[in-house]
């Protein structure tokens, strides 16, 4: 039998042994009795509150939790130097293939995708124009949007210096087009409120040779939306990476026409003297975003949807056991397209308002976050819950409703 001393002597002839996710493990680490350094718990050290997320992928709530495979990718890539443009090149090719686009690039969120995409439209590959934005002298300076789409997210566009031109009908749009029109912008979740729908918007862009961009930030599921709008003919598609796909929260994707993506990247890091210099995405995020996208596309979406319905049903059943409570389940038609449970109660039976209910759940153990709109109701989703957390959420909601009965 070979003792430990002999084994060490033989292994010492080899520089390293084993790999984990592309990282080399020193020989000494194969022995269980090696000294270990206690891991630092910054959450506890800083006194940060963690919570069960029954609300959704809100930025303020740090959106989603990254899968183990994404974290492994991030950790492994953090141990190597790689040229940033090369990472974007290779990952962009893979993302474009998955999403049926000519080209793609990982951005600092959906907002960044819109800024950089429009910058690419405005400047092309002209280095002087790239350095000049948001001064648009000598460039086109107007973007057409539907009135119902003109909400807060248009600030991503005006960052480039453009003026927004509102329209409502096709006739309005035709009249608004002039030699200063740079792009037609479409906000997907506002589509039901607009008078011009996707296909017609794209057709109008092609008719007048004007690029079209669509914002689908939170609009998966369904998974098909990842390629639907590329197939439809939009020149640029922008999406968040840290919501349903569970990539890094600070990542997003810009995809579309190759010549525009190439121009957009000239306004993005690592290049300086550009409008996008501060929109840095590190190699870890780029690679993590790619792995997250792969995992999301390969997921069994029907099985996942069924599990969501079961979890929603469990919480609903527990809440309805309390007298004075009514519930309803709905699915938002576009953004955050997942089962959504509303729990309402009669204030004559349950002496509690929405704010009080949210605070009780927030300050309980464990802390739980839900959302709410009416005075005597809360709403919750389950797609960000970890295994069995629906039982905790259901129990706590039932307890607080029962405790507040008149």
Looking across the biggest beta sheet, what order are the strands in?
A: 4-10-9-8-7-5-6
Could you give the order of the helices and strands? HEEHEHHEHHEHEHEHEHEEHHHEEHEEH
The oligomeric state of the chains shown is single chain
Radius of gyration over alpha carbons?
A: 25 Å
Mean pLDDT, to the nearest integer, reads: 92
Largest sheet: 7 strands, mixed
Number of strands: 14
Distance between the termini: 76 Å
Low-confidence sequence ranges: 1-32
Structural class: alpha/beta
The tally of helices reads 15
Percent range for β-strand residues:
5-15%
Looking at the structure, what is the overall shape?
A: globular
Instruction: State the share of residues found in helices, binned by percent.
Output: 25-40%
